[in-house]
């Protein structure tokens, strides 16, 4: 007995067991694929913060637990991933290849399969190559408005007009467009039409991974750095997913390779992220399959951007020092009773920018590495890019002056307060800035990009 209620369908099930009656209510938004929470870096921000599905501009200011009423925010740095984008050329080629298999070789009778074969058209073209889509423009506009509601004294019209909000971006078109979108979010909010705001392109900061020679040689261009990923892709869990896809399509097992399984997963993920559609492609996976696909992508990020290799996080030393030097500058200006000259810094980059930095800071550090053989024991892992790194993912540092020289630093990830790992026994939820500096003193006094990224003569094996 489905009850239609807007776009929601509410099912009531009466489950009668031998001597008790259980009333179970399942609420599903039929527009959202059941597997949407496993899309890794191809996931929507709304799946990470579901309250935004009802109101995309919703903020809850009481999440910020200020230790005293005296606390004033004096500086904010936001490091933000670009918004929703088209697939890259490489993914589009694979999606095209998989679509051809489904169109020409699939023999099943299911209605969703008929729908793909007779109604769906391959609308992705190679020239789309990772560009920002309209949903991505909105991601950043809305984020800008929410952050200004959460931190009204810093992200304010006065500070924007006064040049106290600085914008820095990666040179990639999707990042530049995301920066323009963030700015448009603010100028439209305050209907500013008489002034324009600059941004600086800085790849040394926002695409440090390309410029870190040791990372490029030892990880990015080194196939043996990804051994665990390769083994998982050839292993039993992935094979089972591939066979289930082949069975659902009624094609030979040999046609569904690991690349084709990935292309199928992308088709479901992109149709949802870009068009908000629960497309027939999503029928190719059940939740168990999706969790395996999610693990496969997490393995890649773990070994390429995360804890897998030390140089991954060390390549972000330059961004780490950049953030702390701004905080230090704001702290010392504030101490001298001067106004903070750079009230807000908005930096727009990539998942590849944020993941190494989060790793350097020690976030999502599980006790065991992700490997090809521990899928089953890693189901509770914290390193889960579906939660950490949707489109428009963001890490925000807010520096507060709580009176009497008491400076505190609040980190937020995707608009939720988090605690610095290893510093969570602090008295207040918001640690003293001095304690944060002390906690990361080994990085503040070291973590030299030039040294960490120098190619070792005798690489450790
Ligand atoms: C806002 O956040 C507070 C603290 O986390 C929570 O107790 C409250 O329920 C939230 N309010 C809404 C409307 O979500
Ligand atoms: C798949 O379909 C194509 C085009 O009809 C055909 O050439 C190919 O032999 C088929 N492959 C298999 C394994 O059935
Ligand atoms: C991105 O920026 C380019 C150049 O300014 C523009 O042509 C394009 O339409 C923009 N795309 C979106 C989605 O805003
Ligand atoms: C991650 O955890 C391991 C121990 O499980 C520890 O040795 C390492 O220092 C941690 N890394 C960071 C960056 O905190």
UniProtKB/TrEMBL annotation:
Primary location group: membrane
Catalytic activity: 1D-myo-inositol 1,2,6-trisphosphate + H2O = 1D-myo-inositol 1,2-bisphosphate + phosphate; 1D-myo-inositol 1,3,4,5,6-pentakisphosphate + H2O = 1D-myo-inositol 1,4,5,6-tetrakisphosphate + phosphate; (2R)-2,3-bisphosphoglycerate + H2O = (2R)-2-phosphoglycerate + phosphate; 1D-myo-inositol 1,2-bisphosphate + H2O = 1D-myo-inositol 2-phosphate + phosphate
GO annotations of cellular component type: plasma membrane
Pfam family of the protein (one): His_Phos_2
Residues of the signal peptide: 1-20
InterPro entries xref list: His_Pase_clade-2, His_PPase_superfam, Histidine_acid_Pase_euk
Record localization: Cell membrane
Highest taxon above the source species: Eukaryota
Disulfide bonds: 71-402, 268-282
Keywords, alphabetical: Cell membrane, Disulfide bond, Glycoprotein, Hydrolase, Membrane, Signal
Gene Ontology terms, MF aspect: acid phosphatase activity; bisphosphoglycerate 3-phosphatase activity; inositol phosphate phosphatase activity
EC numbers on record: 3.1.3.62, 3.1.3.80
PANTHER family the record matches: MULTIPLE INOSITOL POLYPHOSPHATE PHOSPHATASE 1, MULTIPLE INOSITOL POLYPHOSPHATE PHOSPHATASE-RELATED
Similarity section: Belongs to the histidine acid phosphatase family. MINPP1 subfamily.
Name used for this protein in its record: Multiple inositol polyphosphate phosphatase 1
């Amino acid at each position: 007995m489905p009850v239609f209620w807007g776009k929601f369908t509410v099912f009531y099930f009466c489950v009668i067991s031998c001597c008790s009656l259980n009333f179970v209510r399942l609420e599903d938004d039929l527009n959202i694929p059941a597997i949407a929470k496993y899309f890794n870096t191809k996931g929507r921000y709304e799946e990470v913060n579901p309250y935004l599905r009802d109101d995309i501009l919703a903020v809850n200011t009481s999440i910020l637990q200020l230790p005293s009423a005296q606390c004033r925010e004096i500086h904010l740095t936001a490091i933000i991933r670009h918004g929703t984008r088209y697939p890259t050329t490489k993914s589009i080629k694979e999606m095209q290849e998989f679509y051809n298999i489904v169109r020409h070789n699939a023999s099943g009778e299911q209605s969703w399969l008929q729908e793909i074969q007779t109604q769906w058209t391959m609308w992705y073209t190679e020239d789309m190559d990772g560009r920002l889509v309209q949903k991505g423009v909105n991601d950043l506009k809305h984020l800008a408005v929410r952050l200004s509601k959460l931190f009204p004294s810093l992200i304010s019209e006065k500070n924007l007009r006064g040049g106290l909000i600085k914008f820095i971006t990666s040179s990639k078109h999707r990042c530049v467009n995301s920066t323009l979108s963030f700015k448009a979010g603010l100028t439209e909010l305050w209907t500013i039409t008489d002034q324009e705001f600059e941004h600086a392109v800085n790849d040394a900061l926002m695409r440090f991974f390309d410029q870190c020679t040791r990372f490029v040689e030892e990880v990015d261009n080194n196939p043996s750095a990804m051994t665990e990923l390769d083994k998982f892709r050839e292993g039993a869990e992935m094979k089972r997913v591939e066979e289930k896809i082949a069975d659902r399509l009624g094609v030979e097992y040999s046609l569904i390779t690991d690349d084709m399984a990935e292309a199928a997963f992308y088709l479901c993920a992109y149709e949802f992220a870009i068009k908000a559609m629960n497309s027939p492609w999503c029928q190719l996976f059940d939740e168990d399959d999706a969790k395996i696909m999610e693990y496969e992508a997490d393995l890649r990020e773990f070994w390429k951007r995360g804890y897998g290799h030390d140089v991954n996080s060390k390549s972000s030393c330059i961004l780490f020092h950049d953030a702390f030097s701004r905080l230090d500058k704001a702290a010392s200006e504030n101490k001298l009773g001067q106004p903070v000259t750079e009230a807000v810094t908005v930096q727009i980059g990539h998942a590849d920018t944020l993941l190494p930095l989060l790793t350097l800071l020690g976030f999502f550090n599980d006790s065991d590495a992700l490997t090809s053989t521990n899928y089953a024991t890693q189901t509770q892992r914290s390193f889960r890019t579906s939660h950490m790194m949707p489109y428009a993912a963001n890490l925000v540092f807010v520096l507060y002056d709580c009176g009497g020289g008491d400076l505190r630093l609040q980190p937020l990830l995707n608009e939720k307060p988090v605690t610095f790992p290893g510093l969570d026994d602090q008295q207040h939820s918001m640690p003293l800035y001095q304690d944060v500096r002390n906690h990361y003193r080994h990085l503040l006094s070291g973590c030299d990009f030039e040294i960490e990224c120098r190619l070792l003569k005798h690489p450790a094996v």
